[in-house]
């Protein structure tokens, strides 16, 4: 699958979100971290900001809900203009029903796993999803160091996706930078959330291009199992 780079606005200037969205020209999606200060110990933004941002940019919004009760709230983010909505497996009461509702409303359905949550119990749910997000830091704050111990989990997830012949995107989020993106791509990820590595650079659009080139090179040389 094609490499996708999703800059995270968690690292952007919140006073200039519309300008910051335009600054990452060439990005595939704009990653929007929604935190409620309950599921994670941080508070960011909600539906009204997503709705405004969707009107301010042509780049589709990839909303990552780090919130309690996503079964109730996730559909509202689709209605606000999100093209992809990610809920956490640890927070969803009925993940299959929620994924189907998100899809029925016209968005891509994605599920996230915290670092300590294994992928194997969710193998049977994978066909219900459009994307799976492997957190490579503990969710809640930007700028954290990448957790190398997540690389085997990324590989196992890619193997499951290929084994079932699924067209499922595999996203990584947390500590993704020029120093780590190639390892993630070699392990099987194809969608990369980058916050500080993009918005902390002098030229965010150039950072997007550079990260994409690195991931594409690593993907081209990685030996992956074929789907059967």
TrEMBL record:
Highest taxon, organism lineage: Bacteria
Chain sites annotated for binding a divalent metal cation: 31, 33, 64, 173
Pathway in which this enzyme or protein is active: Carbohydrate degradation
Cofactor(s) this protein cannot do without: Mn(2+); Co(2+); Fe(2+); a divalent metal cation
Catalytic activity field: D-ribulose 5-phosphate = D-xylulose 5-phosphate
InterPro entries, sorted: Aldolase_TIM, Ribul_P_3_epim, Ribul_P_3_epim-like, RibuloseP-bd_barrel
A GO molecular function held by the record: D-ribulose-phosphate 3-epimerase activity
EC number: 5.1.3.1
The UniProt record lists the keyword DNA repair: no
CDD domains in the record: RPE
Keyword terms, alphabetized: Carbohydrate metabolism, Isomerase, Metal-binding
NCBIfam families given in the database record: PRK05581.1-4, rpe
Listed name of the protein: Ribulose-phosphate 3-epimerase
Organism: Streptomyces gamaensis
């Amino acid at each position: 699958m094609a490499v996708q780079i999703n800059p995270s606005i968690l690292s952007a200037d919140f006073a200039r979100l519309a300008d910051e969205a335009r600054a990452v020209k060439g990005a595939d999606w704009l990653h929007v971290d929604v935190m409620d200060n309950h599921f994670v110990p941080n508070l960011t933004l909600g539906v009204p900001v997503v709705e405004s941002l969707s009107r301010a940019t042509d780049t589709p919004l990839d909303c990552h809900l780090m919130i309690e009760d996503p079964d109730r709230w996730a559909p509202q983010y689709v209605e606000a203009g999100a093209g992809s909505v990610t809920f956490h497996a640890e927070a969803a009461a009925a993940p299959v029903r929620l994924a189907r509702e998100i899809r029925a409303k016209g968005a891509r359905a994605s599920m996230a796993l915290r670092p300590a949550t294994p992928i194997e119990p969710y193998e049977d749910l994978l066909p219900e999803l459009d994307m799976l997000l492997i957190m490579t830091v503990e969710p809640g704050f930007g700028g954290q160091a990448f957790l190398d111990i997540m690389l085997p989990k990324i590989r196992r997830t890619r193997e499951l996706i290929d084994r079932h012949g699924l067209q499922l995107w595999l996203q990584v989020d947390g500590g993704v930078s020029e120093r780590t993106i190639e390892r993630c791509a070699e392990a099987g990820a194809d969608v990369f959330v980058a916050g500080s590595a993009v918005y902390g650079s002098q030229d965010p659009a150039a950072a997007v291009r550079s990260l994409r080139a690195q991931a594409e090179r690593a993907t081209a040389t990685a030996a992956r199992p074929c789907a059967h």
